[in-house]
Specification:
Blueprint (H helix, E strand, L loop, with lengths): L3 H14 L2 H6 L2 H19 L8 H10 L10 H17 L1 H25 L3 E2 L2 E2 H36 L6 H16 L1
Antiparallel strand pairs: 1-2
Helix pairs in contact: 1-6, 3-5, 5-6, 5-8, 6-7, 6-8, 7-8
Length: 185
């Protein structure tokens, strides 16, 4: 059986990547409606509304949730959904896709590599995790932005992920990635 962090990161990669479908294929009104529905459901989940009516849903959420977040299950998902929605509204569809990729790929690889082989501490994280963030996103973003754009977005994303900003990186990473995409256009 996979440990909690590996389970969480696999789920994180898949769940965040699901936003690519509406961002790439849905009309704008349906993307906005999707954000509204998901954020409302997320808020209901965090406040444990319907826990007695949807026990299977809560079992799934608790299966992936860290102990520190059990009082507010799904809080990090809410931050991610808000960050992606804001990216879409501020910087448009194409750049929101870049923000999603930055969060989905970079956050997963930085955590998995950083916790498994990270030894060199840097601002509370590991250098190895930051390098994993940079190279994994560089590889994927290359196909969307070319080498120069992928280098810039990956580097800025890795720095933002590393810095102790006081905001959840599930919120900041899609916004930063989308903003950098917007600047590079």
């Amino acid at each position: 059986m996979l440990n909690l962090e590996v389970r969480r990161k696999i789920f994180h990669l898949l769940a965040i990547s699901l936003w690519l479908i509406p961002l790439m294929f849905f009309p704008t009104w349906l993307v906005v409606l999707s954000f509204l529905v998901v954020i409302i459901l997320n808020l209901l989940l965090i406040n444990k509304v319907g826990i007695n009516f949807f026990p299977a849903l809560y079992r799934i959420v608790f299966y992936f949730e860290r102990e520190k977040n059990l009082q507010k299950p799904g809080i990090q998902a809410l931050w991610a959904n808000l960050g992606i929605a804001l990216s879409f509204l501020l910087f448009g569809r194409e750049c929101a896709i870049i923000g999603v990729i930055l969060l989905a790929v970079g956050d997963v690889f930085s955590n998995l590599i950083g916790t498994k082989i990270g030894r060199t501490r840097l601002l509370g994280k590991t250098l190895e995790g930051s390098l994993a963030f940079f190279f994994s996103t560089l590889l994927v973003l290359y196909f969307f932005l070319g080498l120069k754009g992928a280098l810039v977005v990956s580097l800025v994303g890795a720095i933002v992920e590393l810095l102790p900003l006081g905001l959840d990186d599930n919120f900041t990473l899609p916004i930063v990635g989308s903003f950098m995409c917007f600047v590079l256009k």
